[in-house]
Write a structure and sequence with these properties.
Length: 395
């Protein structure tokens, strides 16, 4: 799999100073953790999952979650499991018959309801489980159920070829409620540390958090504008996203994908679009506003500024905007390389090549390391390009 693999060679050369590198589930975990990008959720009852993967229907799709939990009704569990087995069997057959190159297979995860379901699914899938990149564990907690997930995963990793990872979703009342939050987060971290080689990503379930207060953010605001959720996300980042913790934390879902009533003025500036597309840039910007993509763009920018990498999405129109926002700018890349590859014992602080900031090797080193990791997965734009370069033809 390679991000933006739908671009022609000419467009890729024209857009990227450094092109994205290929990856798959066997890629080094520390790098693969940055590769999920826009992770598309699909209910396991969907009858066309394999067809959509094989046909490449969703342009730019590089990771997906087939959901057996909240996206289906409680009465549909058996139907969903049966359909999942059918879809994965058909997918394996498509790979075997050459209809799909396994190199173009997106990272596929299953969101499950309980550890028993994990066992049941893997046993029914048999060798086809090797097509999976892993499982998503919803409403994750530090109790015995949480540990059971990882013990199962450890057991099956000893049987399957290639790694099968786990991704816990932090979204329970014990994390949301202030009085129990820190003890619970620390307990979860201690549990994950025992299985750190299997933890690909830590995810945040902001929809469940919001539901505990009977609120739902509107399209004019981001999740960071909701005070209670903002405080909780900050604590999750503090516990799991520290450099010494070693975990990559992803951003919560953006729920809107079509035009509706708008109360506040859009915050997506005209100039980046007009500078790249000229007079037609206004039309491109208008299309994004009509799809509420401007809210998504703002939230992803805030995710990045807060150290989050990756975004849960519920609509395919979100794939390219999110992926485009993770491409590293030329300025970021030049700064990161100058910081990362210089010797701090010989050079402390120096002026950036863009002559607009000072770079300090020691305090900026971990930032530079993350930027270089992102550049391998998403590439680096040419000097006068930015995320708008990838939007016009695909929104």
């Amino acid at each position: 799999m390679k991000n933006f693999n739908y671009l022609s060679t000419e467009d890729e050369t024209a857009t990227f100073y450094k092109q994205p590198e290929s990856f798959n589930k066997r890629t080094e975990k520390e790098l693969l953790a940055y590769a999920l990008g826009a992770t598309l959720y699909m209910p396991a009852t969907r009858l066309t999952i394999t067809e959509e993967i094989v046909s490449g229907k969703h342009l730019g799709l590089s990771s997906m979650v087939i959901c057996l939990e909240d996206s289906i009704g409680d009465h549909e569990v058996q139907l969903a499991e049966d359909n999942l087995i059918l879809q994965m069997s058909t997918l394996a057959l498509s790979v075997r018959n050459g209809l799909l190159d396994v190199a173009n297979l997106p990272l596929i995860f299953l969101r499950v309801r309980n550890p028993e379901q994990v066992s049941r699914i893997i046993e029914r899938l048999e060798f086809k489980a090797e097509l999976l990149a892993g499982f998503v564990f919803p409403k994750f907690s530090a109790d015995s159920t949480g540990q059971s997930y990882w013990e199962l995963l450890k057991h099956y990793n000893n049987q399957l070829t290639g790694p099968v990872y786990g991704m816990p979703i932090i979204e329970t009342p014990r994390v949301m409620n202030r009085e129990s939050r820190i003890p619970e987060l620390l307990a979860i971290k201690q549990l994950l540390n025992g299985y750190s080689d299997l933890v690909l990503n830590v995810r945040i379930g902001a929809t469940d958090f919001s539901g505990l207060f009977g609120i739902r953010r509107g399209p004019d605001v981001t999740i960071y504008d909701i005070a209670t959720i903002n405080h909780c996300i900050a604590d999750i980042i503090n516990v799991f996203a520290r450099v010494e913790s070693g975990y990559v934390v992803s951003g919560p879902v953006w729920e809107y994908f079509a035009n509706g009533g708008r109360l506040l003025k859009p915050q997506l500036r005209k100039s980046p679009f007009e500078e790249f597309y000229g007079t037609s840039g206004t039309k491109v910007r208008g299309q994004l506003l009509n799809k509420y993509i401007d809210g998504l763009i703002r939230e992803v920018i805030l995710d990045k500024e807060n150290g989050l990498v990756g975004k849960t999405i519920i609509h395919p129109t979100h794939i390219i905007p999110v992926q485009a926002l993770y491409v590293v700018s030329h300025e970021e890349y030049v700064d990161a390389c100058n910081i990362y590859y210089n010797d701090a014992t010989q050079l402390g602080v120096f002026k950036s090549e863009y002559i607009n900031k000072m770079n300090e090797i020691k305090p900026h080193y971990n930032w530079a390391r993350r930027i270089i990791a992102r550049s391998k997965i998403y590439g680096v734009f040419h000097e006068h390009h930015n995320f708008t370069s990838l939007l016009a033809e695909h929104i």
